[in-house]
Amino acid sequence: RKQEKWWQRSFDLMLSLVLVISSFLAGGTPVSYAADGETPLGIYVSSGGDNTTGDGTEGNPYATLKKAFDEIK
Fold first, then answer.
1. What are phi and psi of 49, to 5 degrees?
2. Is 27 in contact with 47 (CB distance < 8 Å)?
3. 10-67 pLDDT, tens digit each
4. How many CA atoms lie within 13 A of 5 on its CB side?
5. Distance separating alpha carbons of residues 26 and 11, to the nearest angstrom
6. Rg (CA), the chain
7. Phi–psi pair at 62, nearest 5 degrees
8. Which is nearest to 46 in space by CA: 33, 32, 64?
9. Closest CA to 43 of 35, 28, 32
């Protein structure tokens, strides 16, 4: 019975590590959307962005989706 719990805890730990690592790998991927026939917006958001000095470009992204949405004209 102790051995079963040890394996279960090991499995839970490995699963948690996989989820954490995959979340870091998936973050920061730039995405751009545009309505049909319109020029792409080209607004970027990243976890490493900055809402104070960011301008929404790929090299200087915003930190939050709210800031990006507020800047859409």
1. -80, 180
2. yes
3. 888 888 888 887 776 666 555 655 555 555 557 888 888 888 898 888 888 899 888 9
4. 2
5. 22
6. 20
7. -75, 165
8. 64
9. 32
